[in-house]
Design a protein that fits this description.
Blueprint lengths: L2 H11 L6 H25 L6 H12 L4 E3 H8 L3 H13 L3 E5 L7 E5 L1 H19 L6 H17 L5
Antiparallel strand pairs: 1-3, 2-3
Helix pairs in contact: 1-2, 2-6, 3-5, 3-6, 4-5
Length: 161
């Protein structure tokens, strides 16, 4: 039995037919997110990383100089400034990034990945590629469909800038 389908049956039985498809979609997305999060956490936790910290390390590793202003990193990661600050603080405590004032504007904080941060980001990426990203839980021909559907949802929310 699929508990989400049963919830849909209960929704309809209570006369909420118009809301049933949306409830099924939202509940399914939330459950799928929990499943994916557990898989990602199982890979990153032994490396001492969360997904937020991994994303910041990887983002910095993608840049030419290995550095970005904190505000720009937060915008690119689409997270609240407090979230990027928290991730950077934790990574700095682990000596995976350093934060310092911008030489051109002391009000701006620049975060830079260290050599050890680059190594850990590469190791985490190899593990995520092998254990999660190449096996997302869907047939390969369905993965693009999922990405396209979720992009529509993100676009409707104004997430695409």
């Amino acid at each position: 039995m699929d508990p989400i389908e049963e919830a849909g049956r209960q929704w309809s039985a209570r006369g909420w037919d118009d809301a049933t498809p949306g409830m099924l979609a939202v509940t399914s997305i939330m459950r799928a997110q929990a499943i994916v999060q557990a898989r990602v956490d199982a890979v990153l936790r032994p490396l001492g990383l969360t997904f937020a910290r991994y994303e910041l390390l990887q983002l910095l590793s993608f840049t030419r100089e290995g550095s970005l202003p904190m505000t720009r990193a937060g915008a690119l990661l689409q997270v609240h400034p407090a979230s990027v600050t928290n991730a950077a603080q934790r990574l700095e405590a682990a000596e995976l990034v350093v934060r310092r004032p911008s030489p051109s504007d002391g009000r701006v904080v620049v975060v830079s990945v260290t050599d050890e941060g680059r190594r850990l980001a590469a190791k985490a990426t190899d593990a995520l590629n092998a254990e999660v990203f190449t096996r997302p839980g869907l047939a390969p021909e369905r993965v693009r469909d999922l990405v396209d559907v979720l992009r529509e949802l993100r676009a409707d929310a104004g997430d695409l800038g």
